[in-house]
Structures
1.
Amino acid sequence: GPLLRLDSVNKVFPGGSVGLDSISLSIERGEFLSLLGPSGCGKTTTLRIIAGFEVPTSGRVLLDGKDITPLRPFDRPVNTVFQDYALFPNMNVQENIAFGLTLRGMSGRDRARKVKEALELVGLPDRAKAQIGSLSGGQRQRVALARALVCEPQLLLLDEPLSALDASLREHMQNELKRLQKELGTTFVMVTHDQTEALSISDRIAVMNKGHIEQIADPATLYDRPASKFVAGFIGTTNLLPGVFLQREPTGIRFQVAGDWRPVVTGSTELAAMAGTRLTIAIRPEDIVQMRKGDPDTFLGEISSIAFHGHSLRLLVKLGSSSLWVDVPRDRVETDIREGAVIALGLRAGACCPL
Ligand code: ADP
Ligand code: MG
């Protein structure tokens, strides 16, 4: 069975504000799972309930099938890396890392060996005696990781562990975290509000909104087949367009979208809808392609703005009363792209997701 299971966990705070609304979730051994969602959606509360710092109002927390809901934090084989690291400023690096081992009654040579291994693991073998105040943000982050990992928890919880780091170090540490997790085989549950971060390092992501889970899936599924408007809008950039289901055709379903455009959407033939049904169609900017004027199933739109995005240009295109984000790879521009120009656009096959 799964390593960790949350079974209908609710949290109502004193005063009546709802923190969590019936969260159920299974986490497999060795998995890297992220809790992703906007600020205030309940990510930290979920983590604190798993760690035991917070007691659920109802529901259970099961570890290895055993109900650990009543256990205190230090009686759980779980460690947490806090958002602000919570290092002890009056202790040096090795004392910080040794702290948990000392609490568990380990001392002498065993403890020294464990601390040394942990420092090597996080790439700080020569900073054992350094004071916390002399470390950079990235080094503090590594010490916090080492301190949590040295006790060999079955489950490591990380609350926005990289949010204090600048962009380039952050991307580097994302790779480090992933490598470390795979190397150790430890189960990680990480909280983040950064969808790029969640998509790049997680095996699975639980997308949270207002105290509940909207969807749990691997990154590609979340991106390609979002289960709700919220997920479609939160993961990456998405055009959410009102549409009408017109008819089934041999290659897919014909929708009317945004005025006069009637594209055939493939890959959604399992949709159990009837002609005339109103739906929202989610379309990624990279799934709209520039075509030649007059090609079948294209539509004409006017470019209202152009943003440089490295390997592509992101256009805002006016289409009737709607506006669409469209990514055009810079090496595949058909005609000159400029503000005010009218261009022909079409859909890539299988590129739409009706919600
Ligand atoms: P996130 O980590 O996703 O930003 P939190 O889990 O910290 O969100 O908070 C979820 C909701 O619960 C928020 O509305 C927050 O204000 C509320 N909340 C969190 N902790 C407490 C508390 N101790 N007392 C009252 N409300 C709280
Ligand atoms: Mg939080």
2.
Amino acid sequence: TGPDTVSPTGQPTGADQARMAQSGAYLTNAQGTRLYDTDHSLKAGPRGPVLLQDHHLREKVMHFDHERIPERVVHARGSAAHGVFTSYGTAASVTKAAFLAEDVETPVFVRFSTVLGSRGSADTVRDTRGFATKFYTSEGVFDLVGNNIPVFFIQDAIKFPDVIHAGKPHPDREIPQAQSAHDTFWDFVTLHTEATHHTLWNMSDRGIPRSLRTMEGFGVHTFRLVNAAGETTLVKFHWKPKLGVHSLVWEEAQIINGVDPDFHRRDLADAIEAGAHPEWEFGIQTFPDTPDQTFEGIDLLDPTNIVPEELAPVQPIGKLVLDRNPSNFFAETEQVAFHVGHLVPGIDVTDDPLLAGRLFSYLDTQITRLGGPNFPQIPINRPHAPVNDMLRDSFHQTAVHRGVAPYRPNSLDGGCPFLAGADTGAYIETPVTVPESKKVREAPESFADHFSQPRRFWLSMSPVEREHIIGAYTFELGKCYEQAIKERGLQVLANIDPELCAQVAAGLGLPAPSATVPLADVEPSPALSQVGHTWPTD
Ligand code: HEM
């Protein structure tokens, strides 16, 4: 059903191949008519007025005028690469997903990003990094749209516009570009204390990665896997970099932002070109799919929670190698459209309320960003599996659909009846029981603890990592104009740890408040520290 000029693997064919590669023997206009000159407008004499009839001039300038599309509303700055995912088969007992069977190789496209800066912003700012992977599986596309931080700022997608409004540059002066050092961001995260955990990760070394090749990745939400017998398991997805986890120190990040704002982008592309192909191991933490969807007292539907690896080890299930740079940034890195709802049989979502909002948001934004609903036909987004849908027409439709009856069943085009109920390899939503309840606008009680997990993170840090966190909070809060925000920031820190609060307060020259909640009695999780972090299969 795709455009005739593109092969099933997304490659242009025939005359279009020459045009897209700009390798034809002569230049043509968009209609294929040969041109003899593209440097001079058509004029009434060499010094006379330009003639309105010059179609080549108008076509060339019109197209240029419309070259830009809107940047992503978040994660605008990104860099991407192609690669291969090879499955170990170790997840086959918990999922029927074909690409996770033993030794299956699946082409992938991975886009890394910062969250808040615009498309032209610098790479080594303090921010969360996106880690989005498109698996072109034999059963359709599976997208894992994750971050390099395993928790999120908010627990309910209805607050996403709010947290992003707070994090983007101030509406009056449009500064600052990065997440760092501005009042609205700190106003939000100190008023919405569910953001404490994510913010603490941002203020740690994780907020300024050394390289995109040395970042972990996390699916963040809990997902539900389904095996061939219909049994379900709750999981969290992890990417672990073969090179280990490494960060910059703040001073390095500052200098690099000035000297080479493309530092991460350049590093990724250069490494791939030089044959130093970055690798990650893909892993899952598994939890029994119990009716309460908790594990060791941790609510698995709360995206501000991790499950410490000491309680649920990450089990390796496959390997990702990035081995090819995009050949056209716009066609691939800009036009790729990820979506958490792009799932394959054997992988399902849970009722995490943040995930529910994402299922709506990505599709919606891409209609604007990519000019209508036909963006799945853009080569980078095309599945490597046959497509036989009943989606028709609209803007940028490039498929020439055949037949007369885009509905099922029909008696005219003669085919493809649904095999209802049978196991046809179709995607079937897991028939989980929805708890009987009344409609409410409220969070569950189990989402109310905002400080235990941040405290565990703080206690897990080495002395040098703690020093960096103290320095980061002191710098960031110190740059806020409003005294009340600094004070509220200190109150949040007091609820994490008195020493952390005291050190930052001393740096700000303000008194350290006492905690307003009892300090949680939690054990450190050594796996959270970057120091001594090793590749699991070394
Ligand atoms: C884009 C991750 C929460 C809306 C992205 C991207 C990533 C990401 C990696 C960039 C994709 C790319 O490279 O093209 C996450 C994670 C979240 C989260 C890990 C929480 C666990 C949300 C929520 C919403 C949202 C709650 C909205 C309700 C968007 C939008 C884009 C985006 C609109 C731009 C997509 C596009 O233009 O193609 N997100 N996000 N995200 N995200 Fe999220």
